[in-house]
Amino acid sequence: MQQALKTKHELRLYELKKAANEFIEFTENFSLLQTINIKAQETVQAVNTLQQLLEQRLSDDELVKAINSSVALIFFDEIVDADAMSNLEGYILSAAENIEDAEISIFLTEMMDRVELKYNRLLEKVHAYNALLIG
User: How would you write 72-100 as a 3-class SS string?
Assistant: First the structure.
């Protein structure tokens, strides 16, 4: 792998890991957000796997082959295709509608908006890494 391309991989993985860690920190210890928190933790594990591959002294061809056959890439494809936020968002927003206290309802809606925003940032970083592999 050309040094410039390896550097791009390292940068995209760093950015992805940072977004995942920020999401983990934001959603940590919220029982309703546990499912998507776990997805972010799995994302960090996948990034770690790819970062370890980049640290090995593999030839360009071996490295490309190792990255392309990595379970981490399968996970990235799955996390992009899965709609982890839909079920959670539907549940939270439906619960918010049934709450008589308008301030609590607004709070739940605002909280979900922030969770979704942070999750979408995480997905953007996954897309950016996947695009690097295609391009």
Answer: HHHHHHHHHHCCHHHHHHHHHHHHHHCCC
Cα separation, 85 vs 116, in Å, equals 7
Q: Do residues 27 and 33 lie in contact, with contact meaning Cβ atoms separated by under 8 Å?
A: yes
- Cα 28 from chain centroid (whole Å): 15
The CA–CA distances, whole Å, from 57 to 50, 53, 54, 75 equal 13, 9, 8, 24
Place of tokens 């977004």: 19
Q: Which of 32, 23, 38 shows the shortest CA–CA distance to 92?
A: 32
State phi, psi for 28 to the nearest 5 degrees. Answer: -60, 140
Give the global pTM: 0.88
Token representation of residue 73:
């890439």
In this predicted structure, the answer to whether residue 50 has a pLDDT above a threshold of 80 is yes
> Are the beta carbons of 107 and 120 closer than 8 angstroms?
no
Please give the distance of CA 88 from its chain centroid, rounded to a whole number: 16
**What secondary structure does DSSP assign to 23-66, as a single string?**
HHHHHTT-GGGHHHHHHHHHHHHHHHHHHHHHHS---HHHHHHH
Q: Average the pLDDT over 92-103 and give the result.
A: 82
